Amino acid sequence: MQIAGLFFVLLLALLLVACEPGSTPSGPGDTVSVSERMGAPPDPGFRRAERPRAFDFPADHGAHPEYATEWWYLTGNLESAQGARFGYQFTLFRVGLTPGPPAQDSPWRASQLYMGHFAVSDIEGQAHHSDERFSRAALGLAGAETGPLRVWLGSWSLQGDPASGVFPLNLQADTADFALQLTLQSGSRPRVLQGEQGWSRKSAAPGNASYYYSYTRLPSAGRIRLGTRWYAVSGNSWFDREWSSSALGEDQAGWDWFALQLQDGRDLMFYRMRGKDGQAQAFSQGVLVDEDGSVSRLNPDNTRLQPTGFWVNPDGVRYPVRWRLAVPEKHIDLQVRAAVPDQEMRHSVRYWEGAVEVSGSHSGVGYLELSGYASD
Predict the structure, then answer these.
(1) Is there a cis peptide before residue 148, judged by omega within 30 degrees of 0?
(2) Lower Cβ count inside 10 Å, N or C end of the chain?
(3) Mean pLDDT score of the chain, rounded to an integer?
(4) 3-state secondary structure the chain
(5) Are 147 and 89 in contact (CB under 8 A)?
(6) Is 50 exceeded by the pLDDT of residue 24?
(7) How far apart, in whole angstroms, are the C-alpha atoms of residue 171 and residue 184?
(8) Are 266 and 92 spatial neighbours (Cβ–Cβ below 8 Å)?
(9) What angle do CA 362, 182, 166 make, to 5 degrees?
(10) pLDDT digits (tens, 9 = 90+) for 205-262
(11) What pTM, to 2 d.p., does this model score?
(12) What sign does the dihedral 200-283-359-329 (CA atoms) show?
């Protein structure tokens, strides 16, 4: 996820202001599409990503409350020693309700809201398990801090190492039906600044951009629980960080986002900003990261992307879950297909996000996110 989109959380936050502590929207009547959540402009008191900026680490691993929204987003493909394969998604969103600190008239008062999405895909079992939760950033229920990095939402958390402040990272997420405990190492791949030195534009409108960086291949090990059974697993994770105060342009419907880890050691990220006419837009972009960390920029001129197969959900929403992705000048011509066709995230917002398998000129694994289809 996570290109500068998912601005649905802004409207969602406004809905939750009226909720009692601990309550959330639930049930089919509260489920809406991603694109229905993205149109609300943030409070003008929030800063906008209008130009490149100098990054400051480790501080930038933490929260940026002067911007309206941000997320800590992790996906990965994992495997047990016995060959059982899994995908996972873990995302914590921070949403600024209003600029500045909250009034001090109640300990429940908060100017920040946190939302979490957690999913595990059982590839052999062809099953997708997902959950979400919300909390206001009050009374220690949710928040983000550095020294070391810690982002949490109840018992769901991403915790940095006390000595280094960041890596290794410990991820903890649990539900009644499934859980994940994972340690992510830094590996040898350097951090990648997306877009123009970390400034990732999504349209021509001023400020329609985000600050965006990625760790594209983090060696990961831990365990997954499905029901009462635990699996020891290992593999690689992808970690995206992004913050902004913008929404999609009026002519934009959504995006198709790929994060692929190829077996030759290269990593590929590409997102297609999709207009309401279904066509790719000029601000679609991505990167190809070599094993040594060198980066080649991808854009609609040098990257070919075409859907080749679809999955239709029970409501008739048609998601493209098979693709051909080619970068001719890099001799890359990939077939990307969903490892499980039904990996739809159907909660208070609706989108498709799941593990994919890669074949063609190169083999590999990765993650795919599809937004804006549920309102088509």
Answers:
(1) yes
(2) C
(3) 88
(4) CCCCCCCHHHHHHHHHHCCCCCCCCCCHHHCEEHHHHCCCCCCCCCCCCCCCCCCCCCHHHCCCCCCCEEEEEEEEEEEECCCCEEEEEEEEEEEECCCCCCCCCCCCCCCEEEEEEEEEEECCCCEEEEEEEEEECCCCCEEEECCCCEEEECCEEEECCCCCCCCCEEEEEECCCEEEEEEECCCCCCCEECCECCEEECCCCCCCEEEEEEEEEEEEEEEEEECCEEEEEEEEEEEEEEEECCCCCCCEEEEEEEEEEECCCCEEEEEEEEECCCCECCCCEEEEECCCCCEEEECCCCCEEEEEEEEECCCCCEEEEEEEEEEHHHCEEEEEEECCCCCEEECCEEEEEEEEEEEECCCEEEEEEECCCCCC
(5) no
(6) no
(7) 8
(8) no
(9) 95
(10) 778 889 999 999 999 999 999 999 999 999 999 999 999 987 666 777 789 999 999 9
(11) 0.90
(12) negative
Please give the single-letter amino acid code of residue 267. D
- Nearest CA to 64 out of 183, 195, 239, 213 is that of 213
Between residues 36 and 210, the one the model is more confident about: 210
Q: What is the pLDDT of residue 5?
A: 42
Distance in angstroms (rounded) separating the CA atoms of residues 135 and 9: 13
Residue in the block written with tokens 């795919």: 368
Q: For the chain, what is the radius of gyration of the CA atoms?
A: 19
pLDDT band of 105, cuts 50, 70, 90 = confident
Side-chain half-sphere exposure of 338, counting CA atoms within 13 A: 25
Instruction: Name the burial class of residue 120, with classes exposed (0-12), middle (13-18) and buried (19+) by CB atoms within 10 angstroms of its CB.
Output: buried
- Overall average pLDDT of the 179-195 stretch: 95
Q: Could you tell me the domains of the chain?
A: 8-40+57-370 (2.40.370.10)
Q: How many CA atoms lie within 13 A of 357 on its CB side?
A: 10
For residue 32, give both structure tokens: 């809406």
Instruction: Indicate if the alpha-carbon torsion angle 257, 263, 264, 265 is positive or negative.
Output: positive
Asked if residues 254 and 243 have their Cβ atoms less than 8 Å apart, the reply is: no
- In whole angstroms, give the CA distance from residue 160 to residue 36: 35
CA 279 to chain CA centroid, Å, is 22
pLDDT value at residue 250: 72
Q: Which amino acid is at 116?
A: G
Average pLDDT over residues 72-91: 97
Please answer whether residues 246 and 200 qualify as being in contact, where contact means their C-beta atoms are separated by less than 8 angstroms: no
